Amino acid sequence: MASVPLTRQAAQALDSQYPSHAHLFAIPTLASLGLTKPTSGTQDSSSPSIYFCGNSLGLMPKATRAAVDAELNAWAARGVVAHFRRNDATGDGLEPWVSIDKPLAPLLAAVVGADGEDEVAAMNTLTGNLHTLLAAFYKPTQARYKILFEDKAFPSDLYAFQGQAEMHGLNPETALVPLKPRVGEYTLRTEDILAAIDEHKDSLAAVVFSGIQFYTGQYFDMETITSYAHAASPDIVVGWDLAHAAGNVDVRLHDWGVDFACFCSYKYLNSGPGGIGGIFVHRKHAKDKRARQAGWWGNNESTRFAMLPDFDAIPGAQGFRMSNPSVLNTVCLYESLKLFEKAGGIGVLRARSISMTTFLYRLLAESKFYVPVTEFDEDKKPSFTIITPEDPVQRGAQLSLLFSRDTMEHVFEELDARGIIGDERRPSVIRLAPNHFYNTHEEVYQVVKALNEIMSGL
Ligand SMILES: Cc1ncc(COP(=O)(O)O)c(C=O)c1O
């Protein structure tokens, strides 16, 4: 890749090597985004936008609409009967609703590197799942009560940690250990995370990081951190919030010995806004009957409808489900998961992703407005740096660009006006994430060209 020239032709050659799956997705057009005045001569209002925001909300697989329609038809045609009976004659509906999430499990297991369907479940949404897993796995004692996590974790995660500590009667000030990057650095060094584990190892109950940091795009060394914490003490549990990692990078949760993980599915798993979330629970915990926020959907299926007074947990992740899942959300996720399989699996997609994001990094680093992160001065305008690690092993699809003071909003608006959709994190960051399904190297080329044009006008 380092030798690939940074030209449009080179981008097109890479696109032949790594074909796009854009035809499987609904790509917003300039017109559908309400952009009626294209800023480039080659565009008209029916031109597709360049959507680099799958890190926030993935685009809709075209097959999703029919899948949702089929369940609406099943509802219309059979009402409550659809819980237990498909109508094979009409073909509406995927499964009886009582088992609507069954077909998802093997596909979900493949995407997050579980060893089998028993290690995953589609359920709830992300913050709810984080609470559910912490309720089961964070069991502080007088001696061991701390949670180690990244400073500036997504606020919902922080609130969950605070709430969990408080529910155990602990003071979050002492129970929570947020880890900051070194002064002048944006990302955490693995060696510093391991040193913090060492420092707190006698009082740590849990290590819970995000797989990929939402702001910086840093992909933590999940395997090393997990195994190090376990080696420091078998009483430390290690959990991961994979909001920005699931469907983005090829995590191997089972092989890495991760205790638990949770994720949403509306980002790289393309399940739609507010889509159903998911969990992973390692098989080593399958039968430990730990106390949990129990609900009837986690109960032994053969006795679920007998309504017995004692909870009989399904061994594994499925035993953490509480409620019958939203059928519409579940089939949306199913349609997306089938595309991962169709594309050859997460490993193949990750290779395409690395190629595009590396091309993006290299093009950005060639810009006359780019300044290496160690030399960046926010008062030298106009300029930008990249706070995401350059090493592909330490990042997923997303690059986070940090702009000189009072520059970002203008750049963001101008990109938007050209139908280039990223997202902004005020005051100064734009996140750009070429998606391995529906973006192309040529789009990467166009985005950097537009960025350079916009910054030249500042
Ligand atoms: C890292 C992380 N954690 C938690 C959340 C909250 O997700 P939800 O609203 O689905 O609970 C998000 C949402 O973007 C996130 O990125």
TrEMBL record:
Pfam families: KYNU_C. The keyword Hydrolase applies. Its EC number is 3.7.1.3. The modification N6-(pyridoxal phosphate)lysine is found at K267. One of its GO terms (molecular function) is kynureninase activity. Pyridoxal 5'-phosphate binds at L126, T127, F154, P155, S156, D157, S210, D241, H244, Y266, W296, N324. InterPro entries: Kynureninase, PyrdxlP-dep_Trfase, PyrdxlP-dep_Trfase_major, PyrdxlP-dep_Trfase_small. Keywords: Cytoplasm, Hydrolase, Pyridine nucleotide biosynthesis, Pyridoxal phosphate. GO terms for biological process: 'de novo' NAD+ biosynthetic process from L-tryptophan; anthranilate metabolic process; L-kynurenine catabolic process; L-tryptophan catabolic process to kynurenine; quinolinate biosynthetic process. Its cofactor is pyridoxal 5'-phosphate. Pathway: Amino-acid degradation; L-kynurenine degradation; L-alanine and anthranilate from L-kynurenine: step 1/1; Cofactor biosynthesis; NAD(+) biosynthesis; quinolinate from L-kynurenine: step 2/3. SUPFAM superfamilies: PLP-dependent transferases (SSF53383). It catalyses: L-kynurenine + H2O = anthranilate + L-alanine + H(+); 3-hydroxy-L-kynurenine + H2O = 3-hydroxyanthranilate + L-alanine + H(+). It is found in: Cytoplasm. It is an enzyme of class 3 (hydrolase). GO terms for cellular component: cytoplasm. PANTHER family: KYNURENINASE. Belongs to the kynureninase family. Homodimer. Catalyzes the cleavage of L-kynurenine (L-Kyn) and L-3-hydroxykynurenine (L-3OHKyn) into anthranilic acid (AA) and 3-hydroxyanthranilic acid (3-OHAA), respectively. This is Kynureninase. It comes from Magnusiomyces paraingens.
